[in-house]
Amino acid sequence: MEDSRWHSRGYLPHFDGVSAIQLVTIRLADALPIKVIESIRRSVDVEKNSNPDEKMKKRITLIEQFADKGYGKCLLKSSGNSQIVKEKLLKSGHMIYVWVIMPNHIHFLIKINENSTLSRFMKAFKQKTTREINIRENTSGIIWQKEYYDRYIRDDKHFSVAKAYIRSNPVKAGLVKDITEWEWYGEL
After folding, report:
1. Looking at the 3D structure of the chain, how many domains does it have?
2. Does the residue 53 lie in any domain?
3. Distance (Å, rounded) from C-alpha 25 to C-alpha 8?
4. Residue 91 placed within a domain
5. In this structure, what CATH number is given to the domain that contains residue 175?
6. What is the DSSP code (8-state) at residue 142?
7. Rg for the chain, CA atoms, rounded
8. Closest Cα partner for 121 from 149, 102, 93, 151?
9. Is 143 in contact with 126 (CB distance < 8 Å)?
């Protein structure tokens, strides 16, 4: 990771390129129990015929399938909490191409403006939404997982695949039959 736009806070590497479009996934703090993540990691790591990239893709797929089952308190089932997240996302000053708010996680395609970085945006977004959701819920504490997943979009084909992935998430999770039925989805 010699390029200064790449950094890590521990587990996942992150890219802070200004002109890059990125697919971002953020999960609520209770969306994935550690024991599930460890179990997925162990089950994938024992596969002998897979290369590291294939193993990572399989881990991500299994984690997403679990997240779509709606584990945890699912604070984003509340339309008031989802509205907070939507407003903070869309009024961030960054280009949001497509977004979806699920009961315990969110996905979006973002292009960070030239005066910021993805890590600064994520920190501010999490702080603001945490404060407002805690006030609304009359609670205190952590709302989001520390890490977030971001994927640098390489080209138009990758952009289309990422957009389709976001668009299909509520349908795959069995929440609606068609994306047009899902209130917490939008795109340019």
Report:
1. 1
2. no
3. 16
4. yes
5. 3.30.70.1290
6. -
7. 16
8. 93
9. yes
Is the distance from CB of 158 to CB of 20 less than 8 angstroms?
no
Q: What is the pLDDT of residue 11?
A: 47
- Is residue 126's pLDDT more than 80? yes
CB 60 within 8 A of CB 23: no
Asked if the model's pLDDT at residue 36 lies above 80, the reply is no
Residue 129 pLDDT class (50, 70, 90 cuts): very high
pLDDT computed for residue 5 by the predictor: 56
Nearest C-alpha neighbor of 173 from the set 112, 116, 107, 119:
107
For the segment 35-39, the average pLDDT, to the nearest whole number, is 79
Domain span at residue 159? 6-31+70-187
Contacts of 99 (CB under 8 A, 6+ apart): 86, 89, 90, 106, 107, 108, 109, 166, 185, 186, 187
Q: Which pLDDT belongs to residue 47?
A: 75
CA 143/CA 14 separation, integer angstroms: 21
